[in-house]
Amino acid sequence: EDQVTQSPEALRLQEGESSSLNCSYTVSGLRGLFWYRQDPGKGPEFLFTLYSAGEEKEKERLKATLTKKESFLHITAPKPEDSATYLCAGGFRELIFGTGTLLAVQP
Amino acid sequence: EAGVTQFPSHSVIEKGQTVTLRCDPISGHDNLYWYRRVMGKEIKFLLHFVKESKQDESGMPNNRFLAERTGGTYSTLKVQPAELEDSGVYFCASSQDYISEQYFGPGTRLTVT
Hints:
Chain A is mostly beta strands.
């Protein structure tokens, strides 16, 4: 069965304290691994797509990496405005989502 | 460029009533998807349109749900009759092609009482 699992469920960081979020997946015919950010009451906001193992993408304080079995979202020196739920998803056409990691960055 | 829009943002209806949700995708996006998140669960796929044709509706929970996409533009999702377990947030997403990233709307929060 296709599945995407994210850990941890929740993460509390101090401003400037770097960390990583994990996404492990077993998705047949995976065409891409997607990272989204979701703020309360809003829809998921696209961050990155990774297509092949070894690929890395960066945007501001975020860097996403991909292996054959998992993806990591590295957050370097986070700020309070990085607080959100981060969603990982994969699939062929439709996306299979994980349950997300709720990140709280305290000043 | 305007993003994906959804209407209404919230809807509260009684069990047995009918509700219609609307989604306007990003202009030029042929692919349109509906997803749903029920309380405490992950976002789950409902169906996929390519232009006006249903490509995959394997995620539709039952025949109380009917989706249409008139002329390959906006889409509607009708729930008739609504049940309590239909409560959740319904998201619409669109993409240029099935390989590209999907852009999501703000969602419609449906509460069935």
